[in-house]
Design a protein that fits this description.
The chain is an all-alpha fold. It has six helices and no strands.
Length: 100
């Protein structure tokens, strides 16, 4: 694994805050790109103790978590719920537009 840049270290530190992590993940979702979303989840996992720690909390093995969050990953919704729970987040849905 390549060493972390200063930016990555700072990002991981910021993502330890659940409010920041949620905003970061929501921004990734808004991009509408699966790879961006999975990268965001990998960064949040790193901020929450790393893959081993998150895998244990999500009831997955570490290798499965790495595979799931890779650019070729295609996680099932249940797996996403487990990962999000493992990092102290949850998924919610809001309307795109509020009709008055």
């Amino acid at each position: 694994m390549a060493p972390m840049t200063e930016y990555q270290k700072d990002l991981i530190e910021v993502l330890k805050d659940p409010i920041e992590a949620a905003a970061y993940l929501n921004a990734a979702l808004e991009e509408g790109d699966k790879d961006t979303f999975l990268l965001a989840l990998r960064n949040i996992a790193e901020a929450n103790g790393g893959m081993k720690s998150v895998a244990e909390k999500a009831h997955l093995n570490r290798e499965s978590l790495y595979r799931t969050l890779s650019h070729r990953g295609n996680p099932e919704i249940r797996t996403l719920f487990n990962i999000l729970h493992g990092v102290g987040l949850r998924l919610s849905v809001t309307p795109e537009q509020v009709i008055a």
